[in-house]
Design a protein that fits this description.
2 domains, 6-stranded mixed β-sheet, 4-stranded parallel β-sheet, Cytidine Deaminase, domain 2, Rossmann fold, 12 helices, alpha/beta
Amino acid sequence: MNEAVAASVTDDPVAIVCGAGTLPFAVADAVMKRGRRIVLFPIRGCADVDRVVAYRHHWGALGQFGWFCRVARSEGCREVVFIGSVRRPAIWRIRPDFRTLRLVPRLWRRYRGGDDFLLSGIGQIFEENGFRLVGVPEIAPELLMPEGPLGRHRPSERDEVDIRKGLLLLDALSPFDIGQAAVVADQRVLGVEAAEGTDLMLSRIAQLRETGHIASGLRHGVLVKAAKRRQDRRLDLPSIGPQTIERVAKARLTGIAVSAGSTIVAEPQRLQEAADAAGLFVTGVPEQALGK
């Protein structure tokens, strides 16, 4: 896209394709504060019904690409952001419209891989049809985690060792496209995020403590999250929010370390207050330390 076209796009509303969680609304609010209009395209069965109604929106379903193209163009949207979690359905459960039906063979090839592989393929389809795919770093950079601690608490030397091991682990796993989070305690890997997502991984850690598979005494261990190596920064960046704090506390960990500049923080003020109240640290690790 040439510079003249790119400049004109910024005057148009942003189409926000919404999955579950609070991130879509945090992004919508941040974009509007910058003076741009937004149109939400919440996905049925994923997005929060009660919160969607506060914004201009059009409900849609997975597989309705032709419908999206028509409605987004009628709204004047040429930029699209994907945000929020979506459970990957079996491809035969998707009810495609005619335009999507023609893409099924291509999507099927993408289904046979990790989330980044699938999402990058979907992003290519949108761009081939005249939309510009954008990410949070471009349209709402204030939602990205800064370097250093967020709140009153700081990681201990013991925590720093676990953070380094967690970052090394995630970097080594990047080529396998399986997840963006891990839990490390006393240099022991307690969990690695896969298809279940961060919340369920943390719930598993809490359950392992209850059953005695992990020592359940004093808090120890760190949740580490980082973007994958060579990840498309417009898609599926790691994220944390107030709910993450709750689950980290239940898992009896000491805090959270994330890649600064490439991790989205939903409701940063609430997150900081929750972390301070729970006695947990939240810190952003410089990307140079990740070897990326």
